[in-house]
Each structure stands twice: as structure tokens, then as C-alpha cells.
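fyi for ur records
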Amino acid sequence: MSDLVTFGETMLRLSPPGHERLETASEFEVRAAGAESNVAVAAERLGAVSTWTSKLPDSPLGRRVVGELEQYGIDTDVVWSDEGRQGTYYLEHGGKPRGTNVVYDRSDAAITTAKPQEFDIDLIRDARVFFTSGITPALSPTLRETTAQLLKAARQNDTTTAFDLNYRRKLWSPEEARDTLTKLFPGIDVLVIAARDARTVLGYEGDPRQLAHKLGSQFDFRTVVVTRGDQGALAWHDNVVHDHDAYETETHDPIGTGDAFTGAFIARRLSGDDVGRALEYAAATAALKRTIPGDAALVTKAEVDAVVADSAESISR
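which gave:
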């Protein structure tokens, strides 16, 4: 039985070396990349037995995804399909003023046809936490219904449901996202949301503390975590707000930082930590992820412990 089951698409990420342009690159680095599998990897690394479930094409590329994720230590439960393709995305790193560019190539991916009856519902019902994100229902009308049904199945068996709003403007408009995702909110216990997404998608105003209180009072969430980039994050729980700054880090690859944060937060809550302590470990894991190439937070618990301990020592001086 898994502590955590996550559901969503994992693509293959293709990146030119260094800061080379996509249009001139002659070689690409290939890595598995997906929000929900990233969360599973981070949680597993911090001690939560984690499973990622999805639908993939029965092809060398689909098997490439599973092989890499299993190397990271998580379990996989995949529906193999003879139809649909393996989604990919291309990532071009660039400093200011060029910035980082992402080009998606995920149309007609196998997961877009995934239906609830294809999955092992008992796997989700038996987990302590079921997690997915706002990226998944953005991919197709079928996945909107599937996401809702899987959340419902988890809730019916008292499995805690966790959800990262994770808005992607290249997938849908704020209005489409708001209409779909707010309908899912009654089935969610723990919401993770970036402050910018609360404003852009939900139309909320105010600072992150006000956003957390508003979300917590308007919807029946057990916990609301509001992330605020390099300013850290805060969490509303039992009508109390816990706050934690971001740790200082030297960024090599920021992709997947939010997923690392969420996976660590879930893992520490599963281990019995209170919300404040879980935030501390989530922030430390996110900081470490930024030093690691690729989407996945390939950290060790000892490394995260060291970041937390060093910070506590600095504060006590």
C-alpha cells in the first residue's frame, strides 16, 4: 500500500546543452518530466512510499518514462495504450533578458483519453493521500471528468486529497481554468496555490496571508498552502497561518521547484509533522531542487535535514 498516489501526465523533456537555442541545437538531453511524478519522487525521497499512475503509449518512449521514474525509487501503475502518443516538451534555458522558453508538443497524448474505469481505484482508495494538479484536467474534456471521479473515489474512502492549482496559460485561459477547477474544490482537502494564480485564475486580491484566509473561509479546505516564489510560502490550517521564507540557493535549474516543495510538504505531513515543520522541509527541498538539473528533486533526506539544521543554527547565533 502506498502512502501517496499521484495521477497525471509525464512527458519527455528535451533540452539543448547549456543556453543553446532550440533552432540551432544538434543534440538534446532527455529526461522524464511531469508535475505529478515530480511530486511522487520528492515525497519518496523524504520517506513516503509513493506511486505514480497514468496512461502511456505502449512504445519505446512510454517505456522510457517508466524506466526513468522507477530508477528514482517510485512505483508506477500505468495503463498501456495502443493509441495516442508520448507527450514531449522542449526547454531552452536562457538568462535575462531572454529568459527560459518552453515549447510543448503534447497534442493527442495517450493520457488525454484516460477514463476512470481504466485505473486501479483500490490503489487510490487505499492510499493515505491522493494528489493531482490543475494541469491534468486542462489537457482534455475527458481528463476533466476523470480527475473529478478519481478525487471523488479517494474522498469516499477517507483518503486525503491534495491538489496543486498549477495554472499553465499555454493550456487554457484563466476563465476556463476557474470554471473547471472551482468545481473540483469540494473534493479537495489540501490546496497548494501560487499567489499569482490566486489572483490570475480566481480573481482574488490581497497579500498571500489574505489570500490564504479567503480561500480557507470560502471553500471547505483542510489546509491551504500559498507559495510566493523567492519570498517563500505560507499555510493556513485550523484558522492559523504558518509562514516560512525561502532558503537561499544558487539556481541551476528552477523547473520542478514547486513540485519538490509540494512533495516534501506532503511527505512531512504524512510522517506526523505539524504544518509549520512541513513548510520548513518543503522550502529546504525546493531550494535543493534548484541546484539539480532536470525536473525531479533527486535529493536525500540527509541533505534536506542539513539545510534545515544550518538555517536553525544561523538563526540561533
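The mean pLDDT is 95. thats all i got for now
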